[in-house]
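[Discussion] Sanity-checking designs against the backbone

I'm trying to build intuition for which residues belong where. Below is a C-alpha cell string of 148 positions. I'd appreciate it if someone posts a full sequence so I can compare it with mine line by line.
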C-alpha cells in the first residue's frame, strides 16, 4: 500500500522513473548504473526497500532462487541506521557457466561488514527467468560468507 503511494508521490514530484533514476544518480553517483557496472536494463537501487512492494517481492523470490557463486568486486554503504545496509557488486557465475554482474542489496552486521574483502567468493541466489542483475546472499548455503 505505502510502496505504491510512495511511487506515485515520487512520480508526481519527479516525473517518470527515468527522471527519478537520474535524480538518484545525481544524489548518489556511486550508485549509478555506470558506477555499479550494469547496463540500462538494471532497475536501480531502491531508497527504502521496506516501502517498495516490488523490492519485497524480489527479495522473497531471491530466497528461493538458483544457487551460484559470486566474487565480490566492491561494495557501497547505503545507510547505517541500525545495521549497515550495503550494495554488493559481484561477478556471478552460474552452474550453467553464465557470467554476469550481480548486485545484492543486503543488511549486514558490523562484523560481517568488516569481513568483506574484494575477491572473496560468496554463495548467492539469482532468478534465472528474470536475469535483472539482482542477486541475494545465500545465507542458507553453508559456504563461508562475510559473517562466517
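Best answer:
Here's mine. Compare freely.
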Amino acid at each position: 500500500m505505502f510502496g505504491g503511494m510512495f511511487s506515485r508521490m515520487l512520480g508526481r514530484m519527479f516525473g517518470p522513473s527515468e527522471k527519478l533514476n537520474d535524480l538518484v544518480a545525481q544524489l548518489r553517483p556511486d550508485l549509478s548504473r555506470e558506477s555499479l557496472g550494469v547496463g540500462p536494463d538494471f532497475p536501480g537501487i531502491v531508497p527504502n526497500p521496506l516501502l517498495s512492494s516490488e523490492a519485497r517481492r524480489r527479495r522473497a523470490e531471491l530466497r528461493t532462487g538458483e544457487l551460484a557463486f559470486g566474487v565480490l568486486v566492491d561494495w557501497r554503504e547505503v545507510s547505517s541506521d541500525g545495521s549497515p545496509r550495503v550494495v554488493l557488486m559481484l561477478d556471478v557465475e552460474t552452474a550453467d557457466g553464465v557470467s554476469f554482474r550481480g548486485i545484492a542489496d543486503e543488511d549486514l552486521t558490523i562484523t560481517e561488514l568488516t569481513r568483506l574483502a574484494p575477491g572473496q567468493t560468496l554463495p548467492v541466489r539469482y532468478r534465472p527467468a528474470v536475469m535483472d542483475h539482482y542477486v541475494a546472499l545465500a545465507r542458507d548455503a553453508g559456504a563461508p560468507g562475510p559473517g562466517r
